[in-house]
Specification:
heterotetramer, A mainly alpha (176), B mainly alpha (643), C mainly alpha (108), D mainly alpha (518), A: 176 residues, mainly alpha, Four Helix Bundle (Hemerythrin (Met), subunit A), globular, B: 643 residues, two-stranded antiparallel ribbon, 2 strands
Chain lengths: 176, 643, 108, 518
């Protein structure tokens, strides 16, 4: 087993089990912490894929900002472990789990079936240069400039909207 | 005067009378209304006489007046003219109709004097005359049908004239509906004839009839004539559709005289005579007609033996006499049929009017058990009634004798006849003699059984004059159609009627030379038996009034059966009317409401059920929706992969 | 002999498998959890799973567009989390409840 | 421009109704406008050439050119009388509803005028889509008329009425669209014109239900059969009639049912001649069943209006019978019976409405002896009854006779059964007449506190035109046949290959000018 393989297996086990924990743990705080763990794992996976810039962003945005937001909200709500964390209903529960499992199986099946046609067999080992961040930056500010700007506007709107929502009493259900 | 104008006057003057009386129907003066109506009828009668003279003035072969007012219906090959044709056959009819009609109008003026609906009554009566004239004069089957239904309608209105009595209204309805059954068959007969000949014009049909008779039951012409005959049984009250006529006596008595004795009910006979070449072409139908006629004659007469209502007796008598007419036309003796139609119109109108006079005198009492001995109170009525009685029982030399004898003889002698038919006719004649004598005896003769508070009196002149005129006609009209054998015996008296009608009526085919001896024997037998039976009736009801009671006591079952008119009404009620109403109700309830309508509910229920099923999917739960997305993804992916 | 290549030769498919598994786990969370906030977290999980795919494709096809897309996805995810949480806050403020079963006003 | 103004003037009138400020002058105004409309429709006779079977007074303007949909109006002998019937009935209905409708008078008259547009459009439209729009439009005012001014179960009745007719017409829409595609295949350009539809040669396979012509035939026929209504689809009719206000009933029975039979005559039979011929037995059968069924069910109805409604089922059966006899006699009778039924059943509903206004009951058993109390009313009712049971010299007889004769010529078996309707018709009408008008006075008639009044002058004004028409049509049917004969003859004779030519409005004058020039 070479280091690469080891790293991959290790990271995937960590990420998947943290992901499972997000879904399975009944206490929202633990779930949030597990999510943070998953984020970190994903960031590490990005590193193995040579996407250093993205790995950094992932850590800063997700594991940093978003997770803090989640945890803050949770703390604001002061939630305990839930007695009924999972939705009820035998039939619908079965259907949900079944459909999710089917979906997973199908996606994996699809990947296996199409692996030959995806990128051809002789995959280049490492194509992306180490200084991928530079390429990314160039691309982002030239070809995808409009998308970038649009995202900026979106974030602006979201910021305003979130504030407005949080400030309003009773939100959309307010009775005037 | 032009023919068009003459015929218009003839037909339209009763219509105008109807309109005048109809528009002022709220005025209750019977005299004015009756005056107008009678004048209208009289004008009509005058024009009928003028037309008759006009015809006589014509050369014998060309005796006909055709008038076409306008084209009524023209569709494809169907071309119906509002056309009228006068020829020797129907000129006799219009004379009877307008003549007897005028007399009855006159009679009614007095009879309906106290009725508040007099104007309405006279309006209806005039309308009836109009329709009857249209029926008789129409030059094609459809115009005849106009009158045919029209007279039925007037009959309906007049039978139900006193509509406040539910039974009388019901009798009117019964008459109309029974007639409608006949009319439906008449329509079918018309269709068959139209399909066969391509025309409904009488002359064209009669000219187109194939020379050789058809013996198939299913040939269109046999079926057509049979259907026409069923139509005739409705209008002319023959088995099986005769049931309405006795009930029709609910109407005012002059109406019974005019419509239900003299004119309307003979329309069926007239129609068959009108189409005589066609009927001769279908001997099967002729046989049916003769049998039905003979049976009706006997059956109605037998019911007449037992009835207590003066008008009911006369009604059954009418049915029976109509049976004779059908017997006559059934054996091909069309002239005799028309002859009897004419004499019957006179003496039966006379007797009905006489009974009207009696009823008037008795203050609306119709039960002959409460009469008797009226002879001395009402001499004129009695005398005229007596003549009617002599005529109907076939006493020579009164009119009924000639016509009835002619029928009986031809039913025996004609190649289409049969001794059995003669026997039916003879039995009917014997019964007629009995019940008519019984009627005379119970009404006019013997001891008075009149209740104390009723004081019968002779009717006013307005009522007796028509009686007298009709009595004269009843007495002497027979000489118009003297049978060959008697004519020969009395020195070559011609049969005026037969000669006059020869243009219209085909002679009976293959008629053998008459055997004088046989004819005289048969004549004597029927007259003799009739006399014996009349004498018997006189004996039973005048000499020994307790005898009939004893006799009926002995044959109680049979008497009941006959007295209740063989339970035909009940049988129709039970087998047709009630089942029809019950079936209709169950069809409405079970089929219409609970099946056809419910079936649409089932469809809407399915849709509604489907809707609520789908609605339950949309339960508002975000996660369920997400699950649908997942399931959708699964399905899409499966589809892509499997394909 | 067990072919161990599948364990040692890490390729595109491995990353895709990892992405698929994470995605499915996130989806299961969305479907099964009742806490609105955990729901949002599960959505983040799904987005991250997709991101892995993008980056993996980007690496193995040698194109930067995959990474650009990841960049966008992250931004959107952040925005979504912000709005979602803001909503959660307002709802909680009114109903004192974040149980998703409680909000079934879309019921037909 | 004549036909356009005829069709669309009522819309303008409806707008006038809506904005008219004065409530008291509303009814006279509506009456005046409807009379104008009637007079306008009579001017058709000046321009119409009865000797030609072609489509006349045609107006055609492109509308949706991409799909070949045109604004296309035209008239021929088949639609002529139905148009006149429609315009004739409207003033009568307005006068007839003078007192029956008390609330929302504006809306009511507006609805009447919109309905008028829809009905006239249906009869005059020559373009399938145009036709369909009018066909559906007619539902809307009727829906409101029953739903707003109707009786106690009016909502039920409206929904039933609406859904029933909708089901059929949606099938028809599908068929129309399909036929438009067929025209594209056949002629290269898409067209919704009826005249192009006639030119189509649609393959027909005998005995196979799922063949093109048969399916299209049934799609059209079902829509019309529900509207007529032919026997098993009739159950909406009694409910709609019973709940509808008097004017609604009159217009429903008088004109709207005719849209179905007109459709059969104008669309179904000539468009799908082979299928129509092949399946004629089915229609004859349901027609005959309808005649007998309607009559026997009418016989036992406790409610006068329901009785009249079921009698409509019976009468409409006659019309379908006549149309599917496929000969001139039957078709003429069918067309004539449409007019007769419009007049006589319309009049019956008016009369029932008049007595309902007086007593607020339609229960037969509560009446009796009316003849002694309301003589003029009785006479009017009796005359209409005569027309309804087809007594000669009234209009009903001519139609019924021609239908039965035509059926007999084509298919005697059905005529033998249908003739029983003649008897049953007399039974149910006269039985009802006897129970309502004759006999001892019933509880409603006796009631001293509510003395009944005989016909008012207004009611005479309503009934006299009807009575005149009854006798005019019975005595002089040729006056009416004269205008429709050519079209019906053409329809019958060239049915298997029906083509409707368009008569150029100018030809008449042009040829006249030519003659003069020579």
């Amino acid at each position: 087993m070479n280091p690469e393989a080891f790293l991959f297996w290790f990271l995937s086990i960590v990420t998947v089990s943290a992901g499972l924990a997000v879904v399975l743990l009944t206490n929202p705080i633990y779930a949030a912490l597990s999510l943070a763990m998953t984020m970190v794992g994903v960031a590490a996976v990005f590193v193995t894929l040579n996407a250093y810039f993205l790995a950094g962003v992932q850590l800063i945005v997700y594991a940093g900002a978003v997770m803090v937001l989640f945890v803050m909200v949770l703390m604001l709500f002061d939630l305990k472990a839930e007695i009924q964390a999972f939705s009820r209903g035998n039939l619908s529960g079965f259907l949900k789990i079944g459909s999710v499992a089917m979906l997973g199986g199908l996606i994996i099946g699809a990947i296996v079936m199409s692996s030959n046609s995806l990128l051809g067999n002789n995959l280049p080992d490492l194509v992306v240069e180490a200084d991928g961040s530079k390429q990314l930056g160039k691309l982002l500010f030239s070809k995808y400039l409009f998308g970038f700007e649009a995202l900026g506007v979106l974030l602006m709107v979201v910021a305003v909207g979130a504030v407005a929502l949080a400030r309003s009493k009773g939100g959309t259900h307010a009775k005037h | 005067m032009s023919h068009q104008l003459l015929i218009s006057t003839l037909i339209l003057s009763p219509l105008i009378g109807f309109l005048i009386n109809g528009l002022r129907y709220k005025r209750h003066s019977a005299n004015v209304a009756g005056g107008v109506a009678t004048a209208a009828a009289a004008i009509s009668f005058l024009s009928a006489i003028l037309i008759f003279m006009e015809l006589l003035a014509m050369p014998k072969e060309g005796r006909q007046i055709a008038v076409n007012f306008f084209e009524w219906m023209t569709v494809a090959s169907l071309k119906i003219n509002m056309g009228f044709l006068v020829d020797p056959l129907n000129v006799i009819m219009i004379l009877i109709i307008t003549g007897v009609g005028s007399l009855i109008h006159l009679f009614s003026v007095s009879y309906m004097h106290h009725d508040e609906g007099a104007a309405k009554y006279f309006a209806y009566l005039n309308l009836f005359l109009f329709n009857m004239l249209v029926l008789v004069l129409g030059d094609n089957l459809l115009v005849m049908f106009v009158g045919w239904e029209g007279v039925g309608l007037c009959s309906y209105l007049l039978i139900g004239f006193w509509f406040k009595d539910s039974d009388k209204a019901a009798a009117g309805m019964k008459a109309f509906v029974t007639n409608r059954v006949g009319d439906a068959a008449f329509l079918l007969g018309m269709f068959l004839l139209f399909v066969s000949f391509g025309t409904l014009n009488f002359q064209e049909i009669n000219n187109m009839v194939p020379a050789d008779p058809t013996f198939s039951w299913l040939s269109p012409l046999t079926l057509g004539t049979l259907f026409l005959f069923i139509g005739a049984t409705g209008k002319s009250a023959q088995i099986p559709l005769y049931v309405w006529l006795p009930d029709a006596m609910a109407g005012p008595t002059p109406v019974s005289a005019l419509i239900h004795a003299a004119t309307m009910v003979t329309a069926g006979v007239y129609m068959i005579i009108r189409l005589n070449p066609l009927f001769l072409h279908t001997p099967n139908t002729m046989l049916v007609i003769a049998i039905i006629g003979g049976l009706t004659a006997v059956m109605a007469a037998s019911i007449g033996l037992t009835q207590w209502d003066i008008k009911k007796v006369l009604a059954y008598s009418t049915v029976s006499q109509l049976g004779y007419m059908f017997l006559a036309v059934g054996v091909g003796a069309f002239t005799a049929g028309l002859f009897h139609l004419m004499t019957h119109a006179f003496f039966k109108a006379l007797m009905f009017l006489g009974s009207g006079s009696v009823i008037h005198a008795m203050h609306e009492e119709q039960d002959i058990r409460k009469m008797g001995g009226l002879k001395k109170h009402m001499p004129i009525t009695h005398f005229t009634f007596l003549i009617g009685w002599l005529a109907i029982i076939g006493m020579p030399p009164f009119s009924g004798f000639f016509s009835k004898d002619e029928i009986l003889w031809l039913s025996f002698h004609s190649p289409l006849g049969h001794p059995a038919l003669w026997a039916l006719g003879a039995v009917g004649a014997v019964m007629t003699a009995f019940y008519m004598t019984r009627l005379m005896a119970l009404t006019f003769w013997g001891k008075s059984r009149v209740p104390q508070d009723v004081h019968p009196h002779e009717s006013p002149a307005l009522m007796t004059i028509p009686l007298i005129v009709l009595a004269i006609l009843s007495a002497f009209a027979g000489w118009l159609g003297v049978p060959h054998v008697i004519g020969a015996a009395l020195g070559h008296l011609p049969n005026i009627l037969a000669e006059f009608l020869s243009l219209n009526i085909k002679p009976i085919p293959n008629l053998a030379e008459a055997n004088v001896t046989t004819e005289i024997i048969l004549m004597s037998v029927s007259v003799g038996f009739a006399l014996i039976s009349a004498a018997l009736a006189y004996h039973m009801y005048v000499r020994n009034p307790e005898l009939p009671g004893k006799f009926t006591e002995k044959v109680k079952g049979l008497h009941n059966f006959v007295y209740n008119k063989y339970f035909v009404d009940e049988a129709y009620e039970g087998s047709i009317i009630q089942p029809l109403v019950q079936t209709s109700k169950s069809i409405w309830f079970y089929v219409d409401v609970n099946f056809i309508d419910k079936a649409t509910y089932w469809i809407s229920d399915i849709i509604k059920g489907g809707g609520s099923l789908v609605r339950s999917l949309q339960n508002g739960n975000l996660q369920t929706y997400a699950m649908y997305v997942a399931i959708g993804l699964v399905m899409t992916l499966t589809f892509i992969l499997v394909r | 002999m067990l072919n161990t290549d599948i364990f040692t030769q890490i390729g595109l498919n491995h990353y895709l498998f990892l992405s698929a598994i994470l995605f499915v786990i996130g989806m299961a969370g969305v479907l099964l959890r009742r806490n609105a906030i955990v729901l949002l977290m599960s959505i983040e999980l799904m987005l991250n799973a997709v991101n892995i795919s993008f980056v993996a494709f980007s690496k193995y096809s040698g194109k930067m567009e995959g990474q650009i897309m990841v960049f966008f996805v992250m931004t959107i995810a952040a925005a979504e989390a912000a709005v979602g949480l803001a909503l959660a806050v307002t709802i909680f403020k009114r109903f004192r409840e974040v149980n998703i079963r409680f909000f079934e006003h879309l019921k037909g | 421009m004549l036909l356009s103004s005829l069709v669309f003037l009522p819309i303008l009138f409806a707008l006038i109704m809506v904005v008219w400020p004065n409530k008291t002058t509303l009814r006279p105004l509506a009456l005046g406008l409807s009379l104008i409309q009637f007079a306008l429709s009579l001017t058709i006779f000046w321009k119409f050439d009865p000797s030609s079977s072609a489509l006349q007074l045609v107006e055609k303007y492109p509308w949706i050119e991409r799909f070949g949909v045109n604004y296309y109006l035209g008239i021929d002998g088949i639609s002529l009388w139905l148009v006149i019937l429609t315009t004739f009935l409207l003033p009568i209905i307005i006068v007839g509803s003078w007192q029956a409708i008390e609330d929302r008078v504006k809306g009511f008259h507006a609805a009447l005028f919109v309905l008028q547009t829809a009905m006239l459009g249906t009869f005059l439209a020559i373009d399938a889509i145009f036709f369909y729009i009018f066909w559906e439009l007619s539902l809307v005012p009727m829906y409101f008329m029953i739903g707003i001014w109707g009786g106690s179960r009016r909502i039920y009745a409206t929904i039933k009425f609406f859904i029933y007719t909708m089901v059929g017409s949606v099938l028809m829409l599908v068929a129309i669209i399909y036929m438009m595609f067929l025209t594209q295949e056949a002629f290269g350009t898409m067209s919704a014109s009826l005249i192009d539809f006639y030119r189509l040669d649609i393959p027909f396979i005998a005995g196979q239900f799922f063949s093109l012509q048969t399916l299209l035939f049934f799609a059209f026929a079902l829509a019309f059969a529900i509207k007529v209504p032919v026997w098993p689809f009739h159950t909406w009719l009694p409910d709609a009639h019973v709940e509808a206000p008097t004017p609604g009933s009159v217009i429903l029975a008088g004109v709207m049912l005719k849209m179905g039979t007109y459709g059969l005559m104008r669309w179904t039979i000539p468009l799908f001649p082979e299928a129509a011929e092949y399946w004629a037995w089915l229609f004859l059968l349901v027609a005959v069943v309808g005649i007998v069924y309607g009559a026997v069910v009418a016989m036992v109805q406790p409610d006068i209006k329901k009785l009249v409604a079921y009698s409509s089922v019976s009468h409409m059966g006659y019309i379908v019978l006549g149309l599917f006899a496929f000969n001139e006699t039957g078709m003429t009778g069918g067309l004539y019976q449409m007019l007769n039924h419009g007049i006589s059943t319309g009049a019956l509903f008016l009369l029932v409405g008049m007595i309902y206004e007086r007593t607020h009951s339609r229960e037969i058993s509560k009446y009796g002896g009316l003849a002694g109390v309301l003589p003029f009313f009785t006479i009017a009712f009796f005359i209409v009854t005569l027309s309804s049971i087809a007594v000669p010299l009234t209009n009903g007889f001519v139609g019924e006779f021609l239908i039965l004769l035509g059926t007999f010529q084509a298919n005697p078996g059905f005529a033998y059964v249908a003739v029983s309707g003649v008897v049953l018709g007399a039974v149910y009408m006269l039985w009802m007449f006897k129970r309502v008008f004759f006999g001892p006075k019933g509880e409603l008639v006796k009631d001293e506190s509510h003395p009944l009044h005989d016909l008012s002058p207004r009611e005479f004004a309503v009934l006299i035109p009807m009575g005149v028409m009854i006798f005019w049509m019975g005595l002089f049917p040729n006056h009416f046949f004269h205008w429709s004969n050519a079209s019906i003859k053409h329809l019958v004779e060239s049915r298997s290959n029906y083509i409707l030519t368009v008569k150029d409005t100018n030809t008449k004058t042009q040829s006249a000018a030519l003659v003069e020039g020579e």
